[in-house]
Design brief:
The complex is a heterodimer. By secondary structure, chain A is an alpha+beta fold. Chain A has helices at about 25-30, 65-70; strands spanning about 5, 15, 50-55, 80-85, 100. Chain A is built from 2 helices and 5 strands, in the order ββαβαββ. Classes of the chains: A alpha+beta, B alpha/beta.
């Protein structure tokens, strides 16, 4: 099970094990990690599960598709390493992944 | 030492799945018990007419949270039990088996149930409604390549179901009683767009036709309409709206008016009883009227407000309603409520393409946006509605201008 660290905007961090194949969004919900709202439940519709992939990992995750990049343009404080966590699936090759959460989803 | 306070949640819905963990996050140390008349942990309902029905997601994959979260939060869940009454003077919930449970705080997240139609033949095998996992499971077992499905009702549920069954290789006909599909919720232009795409995908949509009977010998065989037409069917799915589950509240003497009336803190007319989700009616400050919404956004947001209220953090609920609908390769995102619009501005090619946005205007201001495969129009549309400024229709329609440019800084 890949281990993922979620770091809040205030620096607090939580390390959790996720099932391979599950999304970073589901992993956050399943572990009651604050900061991921995920109104649409993971259907790439609402952009309330925005996160930043740590710079050391950004090249290792699959790139975003067009719908996601369009939504990412509209989140508050988008950055080059912005992703919607519902669209990033974890795998064993992402063991150790570090994800940063934004100050707000709205 | 005083006993720990008890919170009972009736209905294992989207709202309940949001409420229970939020209570813990907000510091509720008392007990939490969820009572459900279903036999499943809270699940996402939208996929029932979409990915679940089309076989893309399993029942396990549509759970809102896994079982471990409820045990971690120490939430007791009683399944397959119906709450029969609320005794407000003794602060007890009576279950149908006669058991009585004490509460300090009670939350009604009872949702809504399907509106049934009363025509001959609805009791035949192969005739379904679609609201619960149980319904979707039954429908799924009756699907099959080249089988014929007749869907009664051309609203979002009916059309999403048509899309999912079409993906499974079924021959699908949708019967709509109103002059056009999506009559209640969209502009004629948007309805025409959906009618075109369904036709392109091979789904037959017939508007202005009323199903008057369903016939067959035990198993459904056909649907008869008021104009004498008849449609053969292996299965029939009825999707003609929902009714809020307000009976418990009503019998307990709580204020009910097209939904359980709640204030901006999700409190009913009894301050120890709260309610959230489809079963409620609340005053929305953006649209300045009472709303009963059938949406995930409302269920989640109102449940969070309710959890905060119970924990003593009064945070008023004021959110822009939003909805979505997935059909074929169309991702529709709806921001706001279009009721009362006077003009529609279309951005993009609504007649030939599968990507456009329709802006619903009143007195120069934006009320709502229907965005099909246009996430940016949806996201910036939300912001434009909230800003409430007058907008130039020509600019909204001009694809060379980003909507971002129209936002007041």
């Amino acid at each position: 099970m890949p281990r993922v660290t979620y770091i809040q905007a205030d620096g607090q961090s939580q390390e959790v094990n996720l099932e391979a194949g599950s999304s970073l969004m589901q992993g956050a919900l399943d572990n009651m990690i604050d900061g991921i709202v995920a109104e649409c439940g993971g259907s790439c519709s609402c952009a309330t599960c925005h996160c930043y992939i740590d710079a050391d990992w950004i090249d290792k995750v699959e790139p975003a598709e067009e719908m996601e990049t369009d939504l990412l343009d509209c989140v508050s404080e988008p950055k080059d390493n912005s992703r919607l966590s519902c669209q990033v699936k974890v795998s064993d090759s992402l063991d150790g992944l570090v994800v940063h959460l934004p100050t707000t989803q709205f | 030492m005083a006993a720990k306070p008890r919170c009972i949640i009736i209905g294992a819905s989207h709202a309940a799945a949001q409420l229970a963990p939020t209570l813990r996050q907000q510091g509720w140390t008392g007990s939490i018990s969820m009572i459900s008349n279903e036999y499943a942990l809270p699940y996402h309902r939208p996929p029932l007419s979409k990915d679940y029905l089309a076989g893309i997601k399993t029942a396990e994959q549509i759970l809102i949270r896994p079982a471990a979260v409820y045990s971690k939060c120490n939430v007791g869940i009683t399944m397959g039990v119906t709450a029969a009454a609320i005794d407000r003077s003794n602060k007890q919930v009576r279950l149908e088996d006669g058991m009585a449970l004490d509460y300090d705080k009670l939350v009604l997240t009872t949702g809504a149930r399907v509106r049934k139609i009363d025509i001959p033949g609805v009791e035949l095998n192969g005739v379904f409604y679609l609201r619960d996992l149980n319904h979707a499971q039954q429908i799924k077992m009756s699907t099959g390549v080249n089988k014929r499905a007749v869907i009664i009702g051309g609203g979002y549920i009916g059309l999403e179901t048509a899309s999912a069954l079409c993906k499974l290789g079924m021959q699908v006909t949708v019967l709509e009683a109103m002059p056009r599909i999506l009559q209640r919720v969209t502009a004629p232009e948007v309805a025409a767009f959906y009618a075109r795409v369904h036709a392109e995908e091979g789904v037959e949509i017939i508007a202005d036709v009323q199903a008057v009977s369903i016939s067959g010998d035990k198993q459904v065989e056909s649907v008869q309409c008021h104009d004498g037409t008849e449609y053969e069917a292996d299965i029939v799915i009825i999707g003609v709206g929902v009714i809020p589950n307000t009976e418990l509240a009503e019998q307990a003497g709580l204020k009910v008016d097209n939904g359980i009336v709640v204030d901006e803190y999700a409190r009913t007319s009894d301050e120890d009883i709260l309610a959230a989700g489809d079963c409620t009616s609340h005053y929305n400050p953006i649209y300045q009227r009472h709303l009963r919404l059938e949406s995930v956004q409302n269920a989640l947001d109102q449940a969070s407000v309710a959890a905060n209220t119970i924990c003593g953090n009064l945070k008023p609920y004021s959110a822009l309603p939003w909805f979505w609908s997935d059909q074929y390769d169309l991702k529709l995102q709806i921001a706001g409520l279009s009721q009362g619009y006077t003009d529609v501005v279309v951005r993009g090619d609504i007649d030939g393409s599968r990507s456009f946005a329709a802006f619903y205007m009143r007195e120069g201001k934006l009320l709502a946006v229907d965005a099909v495969n246009r996430p940016q129009e949806f996201m910036f549309g939300k912001k434009l509605i909230m800003q409430g400024n007058e907008l130039d229709p020509a600019q909204l329609a001009d694809e060379s201008l980003s909507l971002k440019a129209l936002l007041a800084s």
